[in-house]
Amino acid sequence: MPRTAAVIIIGNEILSGKVRDENSHFLASELRQLGVKLSLVMVIQDDVDEIASTVASCAKRYDYVFTSGGIGPTHDDVTMQGIARAFGRKLVVDEKLKDMIEKRCGVPSSVVMRMAELPEGGELIELNGINFPPMRLENVYVFPGIPEFLRKKFAALKERFRDKPYFTSRVYINGEECLIADTLDAVAKRFPAVEIGSYPKIGERDYKVLVTFESMEEEAVKQAVDELLKMLPREIVLRTL
Amino acid sequence: MPRTAAVIIIGNEILSGKVRDENSHFLASELRQLGVKLSLVMVIQDDVDEIASTVASCAKRYDYVFTSGGIGPTHDDVTMQGIARAFGRKLVVDEKLKDMIEKRCGVPSSVVMRMAELPEGGELIELNGINFPPMRLENVYVFPGIPEFLRKKFAALKERFRDKPYFTSRVYINGEECLIADTLDAVAKRFPAVEIGSYPKIGERDYKVLVTFESMEEEAVKQAVDELLKMLPREIVLRTL
């Protein structure tokens, strides 16, 4: 069984439609390539209680939790408070982080204090080429909301999550989904280790449905694809990848 | 207080990174324009229990729940089952829907049956120009995952959700976020009815931080913006919209 993950996007700007979230799709693709199963994405408000209850429940249910957003210096940045509350920890000033922020910003002490506070027991993960290290508390990894920074930090960190790869295959169908539904159903039942998805697509020039196969078991993917191809009328199968 | 909403995106293809979700951003923008407060987005798996528990808890907590995905004819389309379980209802064949599907697809009866089943008490909302009407059960509205279809159906339905508008304003700042944090904090405390957001932006040519103001109270937005402009050094304020 693959390890599981949840991604928690923290930010009113996403919920109000002002900003389009890019981080969840990025993390979804990255985690899949690492062999980690992303089981849940949540977009929640900049609210301490909301963050605390969401992080607490996800940390119990999934192997990894990744948060994005809410770690800047302004009044609406309350992610660290929320995570501290989720684990019943106090916020404490991290002296190393305090130095970094003072050097970088040279700003009022209230701002430095806000950004230098971490939940007790939180680990700053030192990474090559990264100025402000991401924080980990238990199985929760805290990333900034700005996509450029999140990507850079995740890239520097990601090898620690790598697991066995997924094996995948794709079959492109030139026919309506309802024509292949019974066949897919039969194949899905015969190969329970293979996750089979069926995605009708509007506006593609050649195909009407993309069928995807995914599994940790390479042989099972091959067999499921073969079985499907055997059962479908040849003229509606365009190509297999 | 505005009415609240949750959006539930149902689909393994989003979680595995194969497909980028477009529906939550679309619904976020639309709901905001309608004066509805989107409080939560969840992306969950094509799993009956997961759908049932998520829908049940969201339907209790929020005024409206919108789901997207999982209503096609294939084995991985289990949204109707999940919603039925959320409310403790049986799935029953809707004769009108059955006729529509038979006429449209002319397909095996198993597929027709799967697509013609609705939770008991579910209402098909007849809309001009829409072939397959969206379903409502209690405060849950069920939409397809294909963005083109979701948009068309939501557009036909949306006036029923319209409420008092939000008033907004934006101030563009040419300075680091840490320089304005204390000021923002003070303004946010003085105007609790105004939601103030601060968004640093990388790679913009002119501004470094966008500050947004939102409220149902037009006058409060104006006053909060004026207060901020009075307190900030004039040279870092680029423009106000």
Describe the protein's architecture and organization.
The structure is a homodimer of 241-residue chains. Chain A is α/β, with parallel strands linked by helices. The first copy, chain A, folds into two domains: 158 residues, Molybdenum Cofactor Biosythetic Enzyme, Chain A (3-Layer(aba) Sandwich), CATH 3.40.980; 74 residues, 2-Layer Sandwich (Alpha-Beta Plaits). Helix content of chain A is 40%, strand content 24%. In chain A, the strands form three sheets. Chain A has a six-stranded mixed sheet, sandwiched between helices. Chain A has a four-stranded antiparallel sheet with strand order 10-11-9-12, with helices on one face. In chain A, a hairpin with a 2-residue loop joins strand 7 and strand 8. In chain A, helix 3 crosses helix 4, helix 5 packs across helix 6 and helix 8 crosses helix 9. Chain A is elongated. Chain A starts with a strand and ends with a strand. The model of chain A has no long low-confidence stretch (mean pLDDT 93).
Name of the top-level CATH class of the largest domain in chain A: Alpha Beta
Mean pLDDT metric of chain A:
93
Largest interface: A-B, 66 and 65 residues
Count of individual beta strands of chain A? 12
The DSSP helix count of chain A reads 9
Distance between the termini of chain A: 25 Å
- What oligomerization state is this entry in? homodimer
Largest sheet of chain A: 6 strands, mixed
Strand-residue proportion of chain A: 15-25%
Shape of chain A: elongated
According to CATH, the fold-level topology of the largest domain in chain A is Molybdenum Cofactor Biosythetic Enzyme, Chain A
Residues in helices of chain A, as a percent range: 25-40%
CATH superfamily of the largest domain in chain A: MoaB/Mog-like domain
How many domain regions of chain A? 2
| SSE string of chain A | EHHEHEHEHHEEEEHEHEEHE
Catalogue the unreliable spans of chain A: none
Helix/strand class of chain A: alpha/beta
Strand order within the widest sheet of chain A?
2-1-3-8-7-6
Q: Report the CATH architecture of the largest domain in chain A.
A: 3-Layer(aba) Sandwich
Radius of gyration of chain A: 22 Å
